[in-house]
Amino acid sequence: MRVLVVGGSGYLGQFLAHSLSSETASEQHEVAVTYFRHKLEAFHGPQYRICLSSSAPEDDGGDARTTVEHVIATFKPQAVINCAAISQPRACEENKADAMRTNSCQQIVDALLEQFPPAECASATPKPLLIHISTDQVFDGTSPMSSEDAKPNPVNAYGKSKAEAEANIQQQWSPHVILRSSIIYGPLPPYQGVGRTLFVQWMDGALRSGNETSFFNDEFRSPIFVYDICEVVAKLLSRTMSWESLCGVYNMGGPERLSRVDMAYALAEVRGYQTEGVIGSVPSAAIKRGVDSPPDISMDSRKLQQATGIAFKTFKDGLALTFTNL
Fold first, then answer.
1. Strand pairing partners for 258?
2. Which DSSP letter does residue 131 get?
3. How do residues 3-50 score in pLDDT, each as one tens digit?
4. Please, which residues have CB within 8 angstroms of residue 77's CB and are 6 or more apart in sequence?
């Protein structure tokens, strides 16, 4: 199958490109990626440079850019996985219009509709499956372990832009699968760095230093191991799965409701670090971040696990695999 990973140079995008194109995969796919700043030097499939943002200068000295429309018309994907996003909530608050343009998925939907006009939807060529990576931040954080039935009610620009994407896709494109991801963690990316510190790697360095570091005790998430996501996507692309029956929105978080303090103690246990005088517990209000943050966006992801037959790893089990062979 021809699979296009939009945002393929990002953290999740690299893992998906690597796992889906691997010779050891149960079903090896022909994978292409898009990137904005950094081409994947060790990736051997087609790569296209695109820019979904409206704020980036046209001539930035990098590789020549193309459009999403051109990529879809040229590569002719049978599945499109959208990982591209401005995912830092504060950056979204500082430029809400650009966050909406980049994160709303409208440019990708428009490109698909151009290649597959509704009037020709009965053609012999099947429409590509659109797998969109959404976020737990579409929820307002007032209810623990939210299910898919909970109504999106985002409290910040990032969540609003991702909720807009969900609505755009559901109203305009089928077949689609929307995966609401929590914090994604795992080992270092398979090809190259992503230009930012990764959460569990930062936390590991902080605890290893032995210096006291404060962690929030009143914000809760359901962190998801990156290879569990790769397994989900591979299953969705499997010849044994019916896209029509799977079409819809799914929560995609690990099985636990954890605060940052909980995560720090779990990591300390897995890595054998001292905790007394090292892990500090503080309320989120203790630090001004310049953006509203939902307090409890833990998720119930049993629907996705049941649909795919995949059991998501606990945080400790994922951490053990993350730091194996270091």
1. 221
2. E
3. 999 999 999 999 999 999 987 777 889 999 999 988 999 999 999 999
4. 2, 3, 4, 32, 128
Whole-angstrom Cα distance, residue 3 to residue 30? Answer: 6
Q: What is the 3-state secondary structure (H, E, C) of 229-279?
A: HHHHHHHHCCCCCCHHHHCEEEEECCCCCEEHHHHHHHHHHHHCCCCCCCE
Q: What is the pLDDT of residues 296-320, one digit of tens each?
A: 999 999 999 999 999 999 999 999 9
pLDDT tier, 125 (very low <50, low <70, confident <90, very high otherwise)? confident
Cβ(260)–Cβ(217) below 8 Å: yes
Q: Is the peptide bond before 126 cis (omega within 30 degrees of 0)?
A: no
In sequence order, the 6+-apart residues with CB closer than 8 A to the CB of 248 are: 148, 176, 177, 178
In the predicted model, is pLDDT for residue 321 greater than 70? Answer: yes
Q: Measure the CA–CA gap between 94 and 283, rounded to whole angstroms.
A: 24
Which residues face 280 on adjacent strands? 214
- At 97 the three-state DSSP class reads helix
Number of H helices, E strands in the chain: 12, 13
DSSP 8-state symbol, 9 = T
Please state whether beta strands 30-35 and 2-6 pair in parallel, antiparallel, or not at all (unpaired). parallel
Q: Read off the tokens for 77.
A: 């994907």
Q: Which amino acid is at 240?
A: T
Q: Above 60 in pLDDT, residue 57?
A: no
Say whether pLDDT at 270 is over 60: yes
Question: First vs last Cα of the chain: how many Å apart?
Answer: 34
Q: How many CA atoms lie within 13 A of 210 on its CB side?
A: 0
Contact indicator for 160, 154 with CB cutoff of 8 Å: yes
Q: Round to whole Å and give the CA distance between 155 and 4.
A: 31
Across all residues in the chain, what is the average pLDDT?
93
53 close to 7: Cβ distance less than 8 angstroms: no
What tokens appear for 161 in the block?
């832009």
Helix (H, G, I), strand (E, B) or coil at 205: helix
Tokens representing 79 are: 């599945």
